[in-house]
Write a structure and sequence with these properties.
The complex is a heterodimer of chains A (about 350) and B (about 180). With about 350 residues, chain A is an alpha+beta fold. Chain A has helices at about 25-45, 65-75, 105-125, 130-140, 140-150, 190-195, 210-220, 225-235, 265-275, 280-290, 290-305, 330-340, and strands at about 5-10, 15-20, 45-50, 55-60, 80-85, 95-100, 155-160, 165-170, 175-180, 205-210, 220-225, 250, 280, 310. The two termini of chain A are about 30 Å apart. Chain B has 5 helices and 7 strands. Chain B has a 7-stranded mixed beta sheet with strand order 2-3-4-1-5-6-7, sandwiched between helices. Classes of the chains: A alpha+beta (about 350), B alpha/beta (about 180).
């Protein structure tokens, strides 16, 4: 899994502007990053790449499931500036970069962000920008915090402000997440994560050294998860799925590794459909006969783990040929019945 | 009249083909293993020189035959015989070998003539021994070569993981046969 969101940094005053490119569409992301790199060459040291966690501005699609969270944080005046990558510039307080991005568009954005960041610094002269950003990310969603640890390769304890016993340990160096066993009475691991996920607004992240992390692991029982698996599970639970547009076309880039990720037969079914042809959530729900919410959860899990992306075109018709074995439906159904019973028809 | 449909497990020596068949077969696997006497001796005491055979009774008149092909290149002639008319092919890779990506490339090339008529699933074993190449590397390799097959890291001794390979195959068949077709 390659969960990386690169950040481009440009200078203003004696500091750099950092712009994180958070786009689920691979082509869009590559396009914007390529243009930014070209501008970096023209600006010399005034641009460079850096992790997104310390970003002054985040370039984001309005279809991003975390978009509203970013806007909400922006309105609380805790940065980062939100740059909407879209053709419609109708969001108060946000900056816009028109699609498809051009060098001129980015130059203008650079000027706007430079001015905004200067104002921000003057208005918050007693706050070191990095500290402000750390505070910001403490209030970001659980999924974002884990992804941030991955990008920064640091270690932290993410806990509920309401119940400090409810926490997880994130090891960004080895890309593992540890969930304590039995901290929440009567709750399994998934239940514990769900509880934490539901407390997004009151999460606190405490950075710890790797040595401290090892000490904590020595002292309590934890279950270990890979980043991919924990993000997959969290996305499957997340309420953010409600913000996914029904009409945006989703393209799958690879089969999820169901041998290591929790799945139901419906996930395999949706994967087979999406590998053949990108589809919107509503189309996928209609064809698979699955509830739209279930489809959204699967799609969101794929987006978060970067196995899927939002397709370039709203009406993608390209179809991948799938081999057609000369086997009758009756035999296929017999194999299903023999190995999977009713589960195969879920 | 009885029907027989088959699935072929192929791949490098020691990738777990025999074991994968064993865990789902209704009968004891018929293996033509002999004591290894050449370059394979360091990896396995025995190796399959012709094929493995297992079967699953679907009902009184229908059998799912499970064939394991010899992993060594010199038995290549057997691969083509076994794969003809198969429902699907499982390509099994041993991640602890020197160059499993090259192994994958060879097997994809060897069986490419059957990709129009067989569903293909790739299973990587021994990831616990060697974590690299990781799954993303395999995925990128397949994407770069225009293959969109399912690929999983599995333990061939685990029945549920071997069944996942078949479940994926059946899902692809369902889509190909129009059981589900995306509209709108």
């Amino acid at each position: 899994m390659a969960i990386v969101s690169r950040t481009v940094v440009s200078s203003y005053g004696d500091r750099m502007i950092k712009i994180s490119v958070r786009l689920f569409n691979h082509n869009e992301k590559t396009h914007v990053e390529t243009l930014l790199k070209n501008l970096m060459k023209r600006f010399g040291e005034s641009f460079s790449l850096a992790p997104s966690a310390s970003a002054d501005a985040i370039l984001v699609s309005p279809h991003d499931p975390g978009f509203e969270t970013l806007v909400r944080m922006k309105s609380s005046n805790k940065s980062p500036l939100v740059v909407v990558y879209d053709n419609q510039s109708q969001m108060d307080g946000c900056y816009f970069l028109e699609k498809p991005a051009t060098s001129n568009g980015l130059m203008k954005l650079h000027r706007d962000l430079s001015a905004a960041c200067k104002n921000l610094l003057e208005g918050h002269s007693n706050v070191h920008p990095d500290n402000a950003n750390n505070k910001l990310w403490q209030e970001a969603g659980l999924i974002d915090q884990i992804k941030q640890a991955y990008e920064l390769q640091n270690c932290s304890v993410i806990s509920s402000a309401k119940n400090s016993q409810l926490n997880i340990i994130v090891d960004g160096i080895n890309q593992q997440v540890y969930v304590p066993v039995g901290n929440v009475s009567g709750s399994d691991i998934h239940g514990e994560l769900l509880t934490l996920l539901n407390e997004q607004s009151s999460l606190a992240a405490e950075p710890i050294s790797h040595k401290q992390l090892l000490e904590r692991l020595d002292n309590s029982a934890y279950e270990q998860f890979s980043f991919e698996k924990i993000l997959w599970i969290l996305a499957s639970f997340s309420a953010d799925v409600c913000r996914l547009s029904d009409q945006r076309v989703i393209a799958l880039r690879a089969w999820p590794d169901f041998s290591n990720l929790p799945y139901t037969h419906s996930f395999v079914k949706m994967t087979a459909l999406l590998m053949r042809q990108p589809a919107s959530i509503s189309a996928l729900a209609k064809q698979s006969g699955l509830p739209e919410l279930q489809v959204k959860k699967f799609v969101f899990a794929c987006l978060v783990t970067e196995l899927a992306e939002v397709a370039d075109q709203p009406n993608v018709t390209q179809t991948v040929a799938i081999p057609t074995p000369s086997v009758g439906r009756d035999i296929v159904n017999k194999i299903k019945q023999r190995f999977f019973g009713k589960r195969a028809y879920a | 009249m009885s029907d027989t449909v088959k699935i072929v497990f192929t791949g490098v020596m020691g990738a777990g083909k025999t074991e994968a068949i064993r865990v789902i077969s209704d009968i004891d696997v018929v293996s033509t293993d002999v004591e290894a006497s050449d370059e394979v001796t360091e990896k396995k005491k025995t190796t399959t020189v012709a094929m493995d055979y297992g079967e699953v009774m679907l009902d009184d008149s229908t059998t799912l035959a499970l064939y394991g092909t010899p992993g060594q290149e010199r038995f290549r002639y057997m691969w083509e015989i076994l794969v003809k008319g198969a429902l699907g092919i499982v390509i099994m890779l041993d991640n602890s070998r020197d160059d499993p990506l090259q192994d994958l490339a060879i097997y994809l090339e060897n069986f490419s003539a059957y990709f129009d008529s067989c569903c293909v699933v790739v299973a990587v074993t021994h990831s616990d021994v060697s974590t690299l190449p990781d799954l993303d590397t395999y995925r990128k390799f397949m994407r770069d070569n225009h293959y969109l097959f399912p690929i999983y890291r599995i333990d061939a001794r685990e029945k549920t993981q071997v069944l996942l390979l078949i479940e994926s195959m059946l899902a692809m068949i369902d889509v190909a046969q129009g059981e589900w077709r995306v509209q709108g």
